[in-house]
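B., you asked whether I could sanity-check this one before it goes into the benchmark set. Here's the sequence:
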Amino acid sequence: MSDSSYRQMLRRWPATCDIRDEHGRSVRVTPHQWRHTFACRLINRDTCPVLLTGPARRRSGATRRRAISALRRMDTPGAAITFETVAREAGVSRSWLCNQPDLRAEIERLRARHHIPAARPVPDRQAGL
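And here's what the prediction gave me:
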């Protein structure tokens, strides 16, 4: 099942089952919430935790590969390299990128290398001079 199909199912499922929060509002379930709840329930039923680490490692590796691939695609002259643009291109969160020291350093290096000077000089009154 593709990631987009999985997310689409998680969006539709609470509405189909009419699942609501304590205030009567429809709930939204993220893939992270679903995995966390599922894993906690398995652990509470004495499932061996080692069985849960393999899928987590695979997801982590896939996330890392997506981020590296996005950086390679974006490493072109004139590309706007920011944590936001890389996160969007890779389909990862900004906080995850910031917590990966090597990827963070690479983003900062590419951002400095791809820095595009302002097309027009900033007027003195706006520059705070």
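One thing to flag: The helical segments are 3-16, 31-44, 50-74, 83-90, 94-98, 101-113, 124-127. Otherwise nothing jumped out at me.
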